[in-house]
Model the fold of this input.
Amino acid sequence: MTALLEVQNLRVSFPEPGGGRIVPVDGVTFTLERGRTLALVGESGCGKSLTSLAILRLVPPPGRIDDGSTVRLGETDLLALQGEALRRVRGRRIAMIFQDPMTSLNPVFTVESQITEVVHAHFDVPKREARDRAAALLQEVGIPDPLARLKSYPHQLSGGMRQRVMIAIALAGQPEILIADEPTTALDVTVQAQILEVLDGLRATHGMAVLLITHDLGIVAGRADRVAVMYAGQIVESAPTGALFANPSHPYTQGLFGSVPRLTGAAGRLSPIPGNVPPPSAWPSGCRFRTRCPIVHPRSAEAPPLLPVGPDHLIRCWLAEDGAR
Amino acid sequence: MSGPLLVVRDLVKHYVSEGLFAARTPPVRAVDGVSFEVGRGETLALVGESGCGKSSVGRTIIRLQEPTSGEALFDGQAVFRLEREPLRALRRRMQIIFQDPYSSLNPRMTVGDAVAEGIEIHRLARTKAERKERVAALLEEVGLDPSYASRYPHEFSGGQRQRIGIARALAVEPAFIVCDEPVSALDVSVQAQVINLLRDLQERRGLSYLFIAHDLAVVRQIAHRIAVMYLGHIIETAPTETLLNDPRHPYTQALLSAVPEPDPTAQRARIVLSGDLPSPSNPPPGCRFHTRCFHPLRSERCRSEVPLLRPVHGSLAACHYAETPASPLAR
Done:
């Protein structure tokens, strides 16, 4: 299968006050296939959100995407696009939804004008049809009485409803890829369940590819086809979802699983990862996890590449070479 | 002394809006008649979603906010009737830690001074040297380097700040701590560290916790008993494993089924509630959950008669039909 989205050696850097540069995304490589869901998982500061912003060329200044990075959408080199050509990709071929729907919706426009704006931007349709499409989209994301809701302003909606509106806006361009950046993190669990159900349904009916950015392994399970775990700006483990959950192999991934509280199984003590996630300016040389890793490897001062530990299963750890896990 | 450390009866907290249109605005009934007990050395978790009133309960029982009505007995003392001085003395025994330790720490105060504030107020140290020693011991107890005392809050990560918040609460040697979403803002790996710390402190110091949280998987790691709130009422309460394995109230079942389990092979009921949470200023009559209930036996009675907490299979559940499982899929 050919890749729909191909990200290769993506590096995003920011200048430091002292003169150097920090590199919060450092050599990220992955592919997303048509109709598939890839989850980028990691804790705050691992670079997962910045990776998704870089795909849409939304890295906030003074940050920049460094030379040598590649982001291709089919045959299109996204990093070479400018102006109008870039606008035709954003929202039309790749759409994005964010964690906080209140800050991404415009408080002074109605739901209708925010959805039809996207419809008009990408399709040459009369006003009436744009409104019909907007109503149909609201219906699709499970908003009751869509015609009345078109007249609402964001503050009149609950958090769950706002996130549904955001999804409707994202769908308005009929994108091939949906980037969902922590789409349910700000929501209560029962509302999260509602939104995930909507997203799952849309994925099935529209055949969209989804890049799911999350810190929550629970959301990934049973939803993503493939998982890439990020730590300190790099992918440290990448595998089909089943293999990753059955056999997490990087010590960081294992640490994450040991930290997650669960509802089922023995209610034992959690085994957290010691220490804190270091900021980009303090990432160690060599293996970036070595300062917190329970395993002391003789080669940890050298930066490990992604190495295979199973079919389609890679870890950025020298342990893979030892064959010991 | 025996008996529970804290007894709360019929606690009510309504927020009345002030100003020009106040008379026309109904009060927000955040807490509407809540009763519970917390034993010595026990953790009671108060669980529910945004707007259910759980944080208001935590704040009123330590008098950060004044209750509208109700009673709270702490070690036999009527908390809501205390005047200034005895209240101050009581605050030595009841402390609170917050979700966001950064906004609860003064950015211009060193960590050492922040931790020592309670020691000063309650005159728990005679000399400067003794004070310094106590601060160092407290920082060490929560897993921080004693040398951090001279640094400022902004120099620390979220997890470290929460440890500072805990050290600050412990400084006055309380018997009871309200933990208001203490780990919700933290990354999972750090969250697990703080949960383990709170457990260790409880064991070492015999602390009682009222642990306010929305995440049932987190709560399971620390609570002895769980009380579930919905729109200002406690709708179910039970020992932790009983509540998780045999939930009796349909809302508890929905809440449990909504927790994403990090296991792709897990076979669990998926109950997705319809609609939004009704407004707490205009809660539905009868059972407050009836507008979203999916129980097969739900009836006219649910719309008119408020169900009271009553014993069902080892739980206390406020549902007229708690004997019959609401969902055939429920665990």
